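sry for the spam today, last one i promise. struct tokens for design, 212 residues
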């Protein structure tokens, strides 16, 4: 039986999730918490779950802080983010903190079920946030574009993409114009067959260009 912990401050949502997951064969919720601090406290009296379904916006200890704590202290626990936030900055930050999946709260139960299975069996699930090729690279470690095919400027840009800086600030850090940054981004989108900054970050992490 695969075990799950729910960490979300919305009691009704947790109750609904518990009901939905209760209908998934092979999954069992072992405890719930309304913030990261409560989650950590409950680990003292409960076994570690296989998966944590983690909200981001919570009081006391939010999802970013909780994911970072899990990454440092319980790296074997797999984190799937379940949030209303769909901006690149939040997604990238959670990936850096070790999230294995990122889905939105208005997703259908079938997508949640797929995410749970994919994370357990293949390691990652990011739905439509990155291209199919990018997901395949992350899950299977195949189809990598040799790093030597990237220029030094492209590699530098990819590293900056893994920060929370907007493109305008990245241009300043690289001492190039915003138009040059747009050109780099567009070229890498085409070269890596992705369409988002998240896709660029996923490639950078998988290639080991930076370490999380």
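last one done:
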């Amino acid at each position: 039986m695969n075990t799950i912990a729910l960490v979300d401050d919305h009691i009704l949502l947790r109750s609904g999730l518990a009901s939905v997951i209760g209908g998934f064969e092979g999954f069992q919720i072992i405890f719930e918490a309304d913030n990261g601090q409560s989650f950590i406290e409950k680990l003292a009296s409960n076994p570690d779950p296989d998966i944590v379904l983690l909200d981001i916006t919570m009081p006391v200890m939010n999802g970013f802080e909780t994911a970072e704590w899990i990454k440092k202290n319980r790296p074997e626990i797999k984190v799937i983010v379940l949030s209303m936030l769909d901006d690149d900055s939040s997604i990238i930050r959670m990936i850096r903190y070790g999230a294995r999946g990122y889905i939105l709260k208005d997703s259908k139960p079938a997508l949640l079920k797929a995410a749970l299975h994919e994370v357990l069996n293949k390691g990652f699930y990011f739905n439509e946030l990155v291209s199919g090729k990018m997901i395949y690279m992350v899950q299977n470690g195949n189809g990598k574009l040799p790093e030597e095919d990237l220029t030094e400027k492209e590699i530098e840009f990819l590293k900056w993409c893994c920060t929370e800086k907007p493109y305008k600030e990245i241009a300043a850090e690289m001492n190039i114009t915003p138009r040059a940054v747009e050109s780099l981004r567009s070229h890498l989108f085409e070269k890596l067959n992705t369409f988002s900054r998240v896709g660029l970050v996923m490639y950078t992490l998988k290639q080991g260009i930076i370490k999380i």
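Residues 130-148 have pLDDT under 50 and may be disordered. ok im logging off now
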